[in-house]
């Protein structure tokens, strides 16, 4: 299920491109507009402060849950339930695809952060931990709540 969901991502660029452009845009705009103000009130490194904000912008709301809704409404999910696959694997596959997608969305934001001078004091391990936390944050947001909302409707048919 995860590979199916991952293969569907390039087919729907309208779901991914805004999730990448918006945080990059606001990261640059916030740094340009507010850095001098933040430094004036004592914020030591405003760029490093804004990097997690941009990551949260990038990963919040990105989900393959709409694909699950489409599968349920079209009846395809009912056919998947008849396969010898575990039911948890059907939902976990979409959540794994969400995790991979949001971690991939974090990478360009991190690259821009490095480009403007943000440094991680913990080195590579800190960057990887930052990616993992961003991925977990993004994959838990809408995807973890959507299946529970859709399942009762699918059973009513």
UniProtKB/TrEMBL annotation:
Signal peptide: none annotated. The keyword RNA-binding does not apply. One of its GO terms (molecular function) is ABC-type transporter activity. Coiled coil: none annotated. InterPro entries: ABC2_TM (IPR013525). The chain crosses the membrane at residues 12-33, 89-114, 120-139. One of its GO terms (cellular component) is membrane. Keywords: Membrane, Transmembrane, Transmembrane helix. Residues 3-132 form the ABC-2 type transporter transmembrane domain. It is found in: Membrane. It comes from the Bacteria. The keyword Calcium does not apply. It is a multi-pass membrane protein. This is ABC-2 type transport system permease protein. It comes from Nesterenkonia sandarakina. The lineage of its organism: Bacteria, Bacillati, Actinomycetota, Actinomycetes, Micrococcales.
